[in-house]
Specification:
MetI-like fold, mainly alpha, 75% helix, 12 helices, single chain
Length: 307
């Protein structure tokens, strides 16, 4: 297993470099720059700023310098947020983003998978129709609609929860953003689990277990559960990366100082290094979680032999 993990990491390096290169050159190709203002700067000042940050050099030279800094773990300074490096901004926003992302992931798994199992075991029953109706609504209604509605109802009308802001260690500030992030995940997991379970229950080895007279609960736990979870685990890789790196909409609506908020500010201000830092962080997390998914596959399905 260790050898397989090592090979997968080595295979991920070219993909990571391709993502970094694509983001770097696409940002430089877009019109405008980090020092463009509504009122144009004097040419001398603009030239000094360009030289100070190396923007007066050819794009290929800039890319080579950025890769060199990346190998040293240096994501560079923020162009627009003075006195802060990109790494400092990420470290600043990461605890908030990880808190709501991890909580939303756990809530989504705790609700979505059991609901999908119930719907699959009660196919075409009232429980199946109810779960699928809720799941369809959760998929169809976007976060930028759910978040203001929850804030309006539970924050303004009922006054139970704060609608914005962040206090470290305060569970009340976690509830609304976590629920908003978790609802689509619950919906997708419920649908995936139901569909996968229905397919597994038609497999020959399940029919054999039934013919032997095994209890339905034993069949589910010992034979059907692990194969059912294979597509669910595959979906959880990128879904977990998206949650753990923060939802742009949710962090903006609830005024959370997380990583997603810095990404939005960097994109609006054309802060090259800040946006690149977020892209690097997000790409590395997705590749890492996909590796974890591949390793979990080996545990769920004994037929897979990574070695």
């Amino acid at each position: 297993m260790l050898g397989y993990a090592t090979r997968r990491i080595l295979q991920a390096i070219p993909t990571f470099l391709l993502i970094v290169a694509a983001a770097f050159f696409l940002m430089r190709a877009a019109p405008g720059g980090p020092f463009d203002e509504e009122r144009a700067l004097p040419p001398e000042i603009e030239a000094n700023l360009q030289a100070a940050y190396g923007l007066d050099q050819p794009v290929t030279v800039q890319f080579a310098r950025y890769l060199g800094g990346l190998l040293r773990g240096d994501l560079g300074p923020s162009f627009r947020m003075k006195d802060f490096s990109v790494a400092e901004l990420i470290v600043r926003g990461l605890p908030v983003t990880l808190s709501i992302g991890a909580a939303a992931l756990l809530l989504g798994i705790a609700l979505g998978i059991p609901l999908g199992l119930v719907a699959g075991l009660r196919q075409n029953g009232w429980a199946d129709h109810a779960v699928m109706a809720v799941a369809l609504a959760g998929i169809a209604i976007p976060n930028f609609v759910v978040a203001p509605v929850l804030a309006l109802f539970f924050g303004l009308y009922l006054g139970w929860l704060p609608v914005a802001g962040w206090e470290a260690g305060s569970l009340r500030h976690l509830v609304l953003p976590v629920v908003t992030l978790a609802l689509p995940l619950v919906a997708y997991l419920a649908r995936l689990t139901r569909g996968s379970l229905l397919e597994v229950l038609q497999a020959p080895f399940i029919r054999t277990a039934r013919a032997k007279g095994l209890d339905p609960g034993v069949i589910l736990r010992r034979h059907a559960l692990k194969p059912t979870l294979l597509p669910v685990v595959s979906f959880l890789g990128p879904a977990a990366a998206a949650l753990l790196t923060g939802s742009l909409v949710v962090e903006q609506v609830f005024g959370l100082p997380g990583v997603g908020r810095y990404f939005v500010q960097g994109a609006i201000n054309r802060d090259y290094t800040l946006v690149m830092g977020m892209v690097v962080f997000y790409a590395a997390l997705i590749l890492l979680l996909n590796l974890v998914v591949d390793l979990v596959y080996g545990w769920l399905d004994p037929r897979i032999r990574h070695e």
